[in-house]
């Protein structure tokens, strides 16, 4: 782990000491080099853990998410260049340093084999994200978005801290490989068990986010700069899914917890998909689609079968790359039209024909077209849920149909139709933007050939 964390931390002096002329080049190329080195984590191993230490370890659940988190840092830096080109060099440096600060915390969260370290790094990712949204967001509402993010996350995570301390008194350890062998002694009071299980799940449900506690997400997405949106959609939501995977293995919760959460997750996938059909704001539409996809992940992780865990992991990785790419495409439109309203940014195909190709690829992966990994994930989850209860097919089938509907609606509205009269000229698409889109879509296409790397 230190082989990646130390070079990532060394990115900070690179960002702070580089001359303004070479700032973007140095940080992007160095972070891309780290991303390429991180691909070694995907190599299969016969051991349950790789690089196991008293604090960290990599297994089949964490390795795809670790690689994704390293892969997205250079993409976030690339996507932000145009957004910050008129700012003074000092602010550019602080912005890149804030992005770099998130990286070690996320790597520690995904690789920690001890629950206290996991909790600390899980919460520490909140600080740089909050700085990104409140300092570099473009609208006045960014402060209320930051408050929403802070309070939703903190209120749900305080019971988690209390429960971790309680578990430590019961088992004498919070070391995950050891806790799998020694479950906590069940207390005499069943209410205590139910409450501790609820507290363990709730913090990750809010982060994922579960329908009902999801209101912070669209607000944060709409107000965040492009790097903040990519960070939220591709990595921070996955912390929620990863946390549920880790915790559900350790706890034996009863059906009184399973049924409400699972029903709410599937109902939320249906509701947020239907909300997407009437959205006028492009970023809010993509944000609500994230809630819909993560609803499937929550439902899959709750039933704890090998197939459902495999499907949830593939969906998290596929959704991370797809939603990040959609936010980048929405940002290219926003930088040219200075509007996120769908009706004011329609008909872009004649002006930016190559961008339409990227839009098409991103939308096709979002609606799970065969043979993409998104389809493999959704089919695996739907089959494992159907095996658990045949009634779930009604909810998952309808949600999938609505996903295809709003994805086509988004593509046709942004690319087709008459050009709005106020758009007379527009800036051509740049090589930087095409490289950014290619670095999102190429991993998605390569994973079709070898999906077992992320399963």
Describe the structure.
The protein is mainly α and 455 residues long. It has 19 helices and no strands. α8 runs antiparallel to α10. The radius of gyration is 21 Å and the shape is globular. The two termini are 21 Å apart. About 1% of the residues have low confidence.
Instruction: Quickly count the helices.
Output: 19
Low-confidence segments: 184-188
How much β-strand is present in the residues? under 5%
Class by SSE composition? mainly alpha
Oligomer: single chain
Shape: globular
**Mind telling me the C-alpha Rg?**
21 Å
First-residue to last-residue Cα separation = 21 Å
Largest sheet: none
Helix content: over 70%
Q: Secondary-structure element sequence?
A: HHHHHHHHHHHHHHHHHHH
Q: How many DSSP E strands?
A: 0
Averaged pLDDT:
91
List keywords for this structure.
455 residues, mainly alpha, 19 helices, 72% helix
Which helices and strands occur, and which strands form pairs?
Elements: H1 2-9, H2 11-17, H3 23-38, H4 62-79, H5 89-111, H6 115-124, H7 126-136, H8 142-171, H9 176-181, H10 190-207, H11 216-223, H12 226-250, H13 255-276, H14 282-303, H15 306-337, H16 353-366, H17 373-388, H18 392-415, H19 431-449
Helix pairs in contact: 2-3, 2-5, 3-4, 4-5, 4-12, 4-15, 5-6, 5-7, 5-12, 6-8, 7-8, 8-10, 8-11, 10-12, 11-12, 11-14, 12-14, 12-15, 13-14, 13-18, 14-15, 14-17, 14-18, 15-16, 15-17, 15-19, 16-18, 16-19, 17-18
């Amino acid at each position: 782990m230190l082989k990646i964390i130390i070079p990532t931390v060394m990115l900070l002096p690179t960002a702070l000491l580089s001359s303004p002329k070479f700032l973007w080049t140095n940080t992007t190329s160095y972070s891309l080099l780290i991303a390429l080195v991180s691909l070694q984590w995907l190599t299969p191993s016969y051991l349950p853990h790789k690089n196991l230490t008293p604090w960290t370890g990599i297994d089949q659940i964490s390795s795809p998410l670790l690689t994704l988190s390293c892969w997205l840092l250079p993409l976030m830096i690339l996507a932000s260049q145009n957004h910050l080109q008129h700012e003074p060099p000092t602010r550019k440096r602080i912005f890149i340093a804030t992005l770099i600060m998130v990286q070690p915390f996320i790597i520690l969260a995904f690789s920690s084999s001890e629950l206290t370290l996991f909790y600390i790094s899980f919460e520490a990712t909140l600080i740089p994200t909050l700085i990104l949204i409140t300092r570099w967001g473009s609208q006045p509402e960014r402060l209320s978005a930051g408050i929403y993010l802070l309070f939703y996350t903190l209120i749900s995570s305080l019971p988690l801290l209390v429960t971790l301390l309680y578990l430590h008194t019961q088992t004498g350890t919070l070391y995950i490989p050891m806790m799998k062998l020694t479950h906590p002694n069940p207390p005499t009071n069943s209410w205590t068990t139910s409450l501790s299980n609820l507290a363990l799940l709730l913090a990750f449900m809010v982060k994922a986010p579960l329908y009902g506690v999801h209101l912070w997400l669209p607000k944060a997405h709409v107000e965040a700069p492009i790097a903040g949106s990519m960070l939220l959609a591709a990595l921070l939501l996955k912390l929620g899914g990863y946390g549920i995977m880790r915790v559900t293995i350790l706890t034996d919760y009863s059906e009184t917890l399973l049924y409400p959460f699972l029903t709410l997750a599937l109902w939320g996938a249906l509701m947020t998909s239907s909300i997407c059909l009437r959205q006028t704001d492009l970023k809010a539409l993509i944000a609500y689609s994230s809630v819909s996809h993560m609803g499937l992940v929550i439902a899959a992780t709750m039933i704890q079968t090998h197939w459902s865990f495999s499907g949830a992991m593939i969906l998290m990785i596929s959704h991370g790359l797809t939603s990040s790419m959609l936010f980048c495409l929405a940002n290219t439109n926003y930088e040219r039209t200075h509007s996120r309203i769908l009706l004011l940014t329609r008909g872009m195909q004649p002006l930016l024909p190559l961008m339409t190709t990227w839009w098409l690829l991103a939308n096709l992966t979002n609606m799970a077209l065969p043979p993409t990994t998104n389809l493999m994930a959704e089919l695996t989850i739907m089959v494992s849920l159907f095996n658990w209860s045949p009634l779930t097919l009604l909810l998952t089938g309808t949600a999938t149909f609505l996903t295809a509907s709003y994805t086509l609606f988004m593509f046709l509205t942004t690319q087709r139709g008459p050009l709005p009269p106020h758009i007379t000229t527009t800036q051509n698409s740049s090589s930087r933007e095409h490289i950014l889109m290619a670095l999102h879509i190429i991993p998605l296409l390569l994973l079709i050939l070898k999906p077992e790397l992320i399963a």
